[in-house]
């Protein structure tokens, strides 16, 4: 049984889309292009992913919190004793999609659930991929210069 369902995902994505549009308006007001700077956009939207997915999970489970600071779980679901790592990505110019993680943290924790949200450049279409119990065996060993990030 998965603890995140399709309806919850749609609800969280709807909230993320609303927040995205509000951020885009603010950025445009100040002369910035929020949509075309995908790296910066995804960094800002990553926190929204954590917050809005935690909100929908909290409607079903107790003890749900989102922190996301370095070294802290993105989402904790106390009732289930689960940690959920959230990742937001967009297809790169070469067409690749990065599914990465912090290798050292994963090795320390042993196993973590992952929620990857893939957004198109316009932030209008999404794929939600949920993985339970990923370990370092599911990722490549980080290459030199990768700052500890490992690819699935």
Question: What would your notes on this structure say?
Answer:
The chain has about 150 residues and is an alpha+beta fold. The protein is built from three helices and seven strands. The protein has helices spanning about 5-30, 40-60, 105-110; strands spanning about 65, 75, 80-90, 100, 110-120, 125-135, 150. The chain has a five-stranded mixed beta sheet with strand order 1-2-3-5-6, covered by helices on one side. Strands 4-7 form a two-stranded antiparallel sheet. Helix 1 packs across helix 2. It is globular. The two termini are about 25 Å apart. The relative contact order is 0.14. The model has no long low-confidence stretch (mean pLDDT about 90).
Range of strand content: 15-25%
Distance between the termini: 23 Å
**Helix/strand/pairing category:** alpha+beta
Q: How many E-type strands? A: 7
Supply Rg. 16 Å
Order of helices and strands: HHEEEEHEEE
What's the average pLDDT? 91
Shape: globular
> How many helices in DSSP terms?
3
Uncertain segments of ≥5 residues (pLDDT<50)?
Answer: none
How do the strands line up in the largest sheet? Answer: 1-2-3-5-6
Major sheet description: 5 strands, mixed
Helix % is 25-40%
């Amino acid at each position: 049984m998965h603890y995140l369902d399709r309806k919850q995902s749609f609800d969280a994505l709807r909230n993320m889309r609303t927040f995205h549009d509000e951020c885009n308006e603010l950025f445009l007001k100040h002369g910035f292009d929020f949509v075309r700077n995908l790296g910066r956009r995804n960094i800002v939207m990553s926190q929204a992913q954590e917050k809005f997915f935690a909100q929908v999970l909290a409607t079903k489970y107790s003890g749900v919190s989102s922190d996301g600071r370095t070294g802290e779980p993105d989402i904790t679901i106390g009732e289930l004793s689960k940690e959920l790592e959230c990742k937001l990505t967009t297809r790169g110019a070469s067409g690749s999609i990065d599914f990465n993680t912090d290798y050292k943290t994963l090795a320390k924790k042993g196993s973590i659930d992952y929620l990857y949200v893939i957004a198109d450049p316009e932030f209008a279409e999404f794929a939600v991929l949920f993985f339970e119990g990923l370990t370092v065996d599911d990722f490549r060993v980080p290459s030199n210069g990768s700052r500890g990030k490992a690819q699935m």
